[in-house]
Amino acid sequence: MHPPAHHTTSGAQHAMRDLVRIGLVGVGIIAKTHLEVLAEQPRVTLAFTADPHRNEAVGFRGTKPPHYATLTHALTEHQPDLIVLATPTNTHADLVGEALTQSSARVLVEKPLVHDLDSLARLRSLQGTEDVHGRVFTAHHFAFSPEVRWAAQQIAEHPNWGPITAITSAFYDPYVLRGEQAFASYVSSWTDSGVNQLSMLARFVDLTALTSAHPMDAGASAWCTAAYRSRGTVGSARLRTSWRTGSSSKETVLIFGHSGVEIWIDHTAMTGFTARGDALLAAYGNDGKTPRKIAHYRPLHESLLSAQPDPVLSFDTAVTITELHHSTPVPGAGVE
Ligand SMILES: NC(=O)c1ccc[n+]([C@@H]2O[C@H](COP(=O)([O-])OP(=O)(O)OC[C@H]3O[C@@H](n4cnc5c(N)ncnc54)[C@H](O)[C@@H]3O)[C@@H](O)[C@H]2O)c1
């Protein structure tokens, strides 16, 4: 049974209702993954889609829900429980604002939550009238990747390894082939992948400051560093992002300098291993049957629809990551 529309504003402490009516805004590349994962959830129905550059409705479990050019039009005819925003990054802030003020739905916005700090301030200013904390969730999907969760579990189970003293992460995407379209959808490599790296690292350490940022290749690449705390110790993360390649490749190495342990995780293959010197301590693989994006978004949506969504999806986490992501670097910040 659908809940009455005026009861659908649910705080993070409440599970979504029995049936969840979803409005999908933006029917581009990542929307396909949302639709595939949501179609697996028997509780979910697709109420509408909205996208000004698409004319036809999309299929969802054998039905074709109504399609609109704009969210504004869709909300005059529907009261969804959840609005999924899968639109270009620089549209997120306006659409989150509209979803908050023109509906009572929860909002799952694609990462990054916003493209600049002014937009973040505008969303925060809605807190006086809207339940921004209870309703806005950001799809920090990399934090749900299986090798990331495996590494986090390894770390939790082995306090004897000591703090993570150094991190190196490199995220490459083949967006050079998409030319200007890549900048239109994702702004820059640091805007797009930096937030994936930071939300993934939030599983392992407490990020404290951006210590350097060097955009290069007109925004298609970057080299940034961030300070963090791990088990009471300060460390430094080196973050490389780039679109200058024909293939996707993403990996992260965590060094536990006090014990000599290293964790290597390959986000492209969703594999990992832990080693100390010549010894292999642990390894993680998968059966090869689940495509990477499904492996991220299936647990993400399961968590969002649960009674206690993972804090990595929360507005607070998005604020922390956005502020760090866009801060003016402070060399030596966080280092004692
Ligand atoms: N592609 C990926 O692998 C991926 C993965 C994770 C997150 N994301 C994020 O998802 C977002 C979208 O990425 P994408 O790759 O799907 O981009 P895309 O360009 O393929 O799709 C965006 C869609 O939004 C539509 N759109 C534009 N403005 C709109 C508006 N005002 N209202 C409704 N629809 C609108 C466009 O017509 C297009 O169909 C970006 O923020 C990106 O960072 C993408």
From TrEMBL:
Domain Gfo/Idh/MocA-like oxidoreductase N-terminal: 20-135
GO MF, one example: nucleotide binding
Signal peptide positions (record): none
One Pfam short name: GFO_IDH_MocA
Protein name: Putative dehydrogenase
Gene source species: Streptomyces zagrosensis
Lineage: Bacteria, Bacillati, Actinomycetota, Actinomycetes, Kitasatosporales
